[in-house]
Amino acid sequence: MSSEDKGMGKLFLQYYSYGKKTLSAISKIMRKLRKSEGKDRKRSDKELTMLAETLEKRLTDRNKELAETNEKLRREVAEHKQTEERMRRLAHAIEQSSGSILITDSTGVIEYVNPKFTQITGYTSEEVIGENPRILKSRKTPEGVYQNLWQTVTSGKEWRGTFCNTKKSGENYWESASISPVKNVEGTITHFIAVKEDITERMKAERRLRAQHVVTKVLAESATIKEAFSKILQAVCMALEWDFGEIFILGIEDGRLHCSELWHRPSLKFSEFTSCTKHMIFSPGIGLPGRVLSRAQATWIADVVQDSNFPRAKIASKEGLHGAFGFPILSDKEVLGTISFFSHEIRQPDEDLLAMMAAIGSQIGVFIKRKRADKKLEESEIKYRRLIENLQDNYFFYSYNTEGVFTYISTSITNILCYSPQEFLTHYAEFMTYNPVNSEVIRHRELSIKGVKQPPYNVEIYHKNGSIRMFKVQEVPIFDNKNQVILVEGIAEDITELKQMENELLQSEKLKAMGVMTSGISHEFNNILAIIKGYALLLEEKYKDHREINKKLNVILKSVSDGTEIVTRMLKFTKAEMDESHFTSVNVRELVKEVIDFSMPRWKTASQANGIEYQI
Q1: DSSP string, 193-244
Q2: Taking the chain, what is the end-to-end CA distance rounded to the nearest angstrom?
Q3: CB count, 10 Å around CB of 228?
Q4: How confident is the model at residue 286 (pLDDT cuts 50, 70, 90)?
Q5: Can you tell me the distance from the alpha carbon of 584 to that of 576, in angstroms, rounded to the nearest whole number?
Q6: Least enclosed by CB within 10 Å: which of 44, 104, 344, 502?
């Protein structure tokens, strides 16, 4: 029987009872009328009329009351039907909800779970009803979270937060939960209802992005490969919740993988696994690192303990390591090493994670290549600077940045100009002379900063003692991997003595030319004097008795003698005539060797300044 039928039956019983009472009252009045026939009929008629009116009023009121009750009952029945429909829809919504729903009593015992709960956790409703939600509890949610949750909901408030729970399979998952108390009409908490959403994929995506960001930052900020390796292992382990990380680098000589860096969570101990890993060397195809090396791609192992190609399986089992994955460190297509991570949990392959780590492996490969190149360049610069520092005292090495500010001066400048490197770095402009050759320095410097290779040019600088020194400068712009000038390096050679020698040689050449010319003039002049002297002697012999003529001829002969003396002195001064008796024999082979030994450092310095490497 429906609730509506029951309500109508109840209403009929009430109406029937009331009508029965009314008929009884009428019967009493009729009996009373029959007994009073002999009395005053007028009085009786009046009473009967009043009674009929009263009865009619009561029936009207009662009918009205019954009509109102009937309408109220009809509304209640309609509302009940609506409530049942709402409950049916609510139940359907709960059953079909995309989030898991769990209802417990006031003590936390599970009374209901929806199908989504079973889908996510792997537990059926029969397995969890009557149990406490703590069967889902993992070690990764702090105990304080649960304490705060219970205090909040038992105080009548809603709690919102996230959990890391464990499925029936043992796999961890993350969920966002809203837990609210349910109260009865008296305000007493009778149940708790939890509405939860699986946010595992979102958490993984966020953590992958965070790990990638941290690794990129580490690579940008680390000064050395070792510093970067330690930080990368820590960043990935913390961001992606792995327990142990290792990096193996490929040996150039033997083509095998050697342990470079290890890291694990400080709260966990892997003493035997760590000790074993430090001394492991993997050939291609052997173990997780070896497989990554031979395949040149990321590899996942759900449980290393069950893996037949994992040499450390027994130790891993002993120390509770199971899930693992590794990926190559790549530069172009060259494998430079491998990175692997291990977990206490058995983990199923995560293709998104492997793809991200493959990209990170390429980033690390570029970083390693760059740092190795930087190290070689630094070593080369050190050797080069040592070479410069040990050159003869007429060279010094320098560099300046793209703003034209000196950043380095070799110590050999002290031997040349008596300034300390620091003095010259800060006051070099004051040490430049006013020689016009210095007016070209700024132009040459600006062109070098722009990347234009300059021919050698001269600079004149004051020595600390006030003397002037001339330098021949050769500069080379240094470019980065983007072909941008980062600094300019140069070599300055003190050519003061060379310039002096050139000047002296020039003067000597002038004198020599003058001597040759004078020698020729003297020879011609001697010829003229000889002719004059000859004719004078002939005239003297012819007019020997003529005193006046002889007197004049003696004047001529005296002048010829004086001219001859002048010519002889000129020839002697210019050394126009060479005396072969002063020539000395020379070993030409030894002379050439000495010349090469003396000039070799200058050749090498000049070639290196122009970017040429060679061996003699």
Answers
A1: EEEEEE-HHHHHHHHHHHHHHHHHHHHHH-SSHHHHHHHHHHHHHHHHT-SE
A2: 117
A3: 22
A4: very high
A5: 19
A6: 502
Torsion of CA 102, 106, 107, 112, to 10 degrees: -30
Q: Which long-range contacts (CB under 8 A, 24 or more apart) does 456-460 make?
A: 458/495, 459/432, 459/492, 460/432, 460/433, 460/435
What pTM was estimated for this model as a whole? 0.51
* CA distance linking residue 258 with residue 250, whole number of Å: 6
Q: What is the pLDDT of residue 15?
A: 46
pLDDT band at 225 (very low <50, low <70, confident <90, very high): confident
User: Could you tell me the two tokens for 288?
Assistant: 């997780």
Strand, coil or helix: 479: strand
3-class DSSP state of 52: helix
CA distance 169 to 162: 20
Helix axes 351-389, 200-221, angle to 10 degrees: 0
Instruction: Answer whether 239's CB lies under 8 Å from 265's CB.
Output: no
Return all residues near 417 (Cβ < 8 A) that are at least 6 apart: 424, 431, 461, 463, 464, 469
Q: Exposed, middle or buried, 200 (CB in 10 Å: 0-12/13-18/19+)?
A: middle
Q: Tokens standing for 6?
A: 């029951």
pLDDT in tens, 354-386: 888 888 899 899 888 888 887 777 776 676 666
CB 582 within 8 A of CB 547: no
Cα separation, 452 vs 165, whole angstroms:
65
Q: Answer yes or no: are the C-beta atoms of 119 and 95 closer than 8 Å.
A: no
- The 10 Å Cβ neighbour count of residue 142 is 10
Q: Which amino acid is at 70?
A: N
Sign of the dihedral through C-alpha 154, 159, 164, 166: positive
pLDDT band at 584 (very low <50, low <70, confident <90, very high): low
Question: How does the average pLDDT of the chain come out, rounded?
Answer: 80
What residues does 164 pair with on adjacent strands? 174
CA gap 325, 295 in Å, rounded: 13
Using an 8 Å Cβ cutoff, are 288 and 324 in contact?
Answer: yes
Which ranges of 265-343 would DSSP assign to H, the alpha helix?
271-278, 287-295, 313-318
Please state whether beta strands 257-264 and 159-166 pair in parallel, antiparallel, or not at all (unpaired): unpaired
Average pLDDT score over residue span 295-300: 92
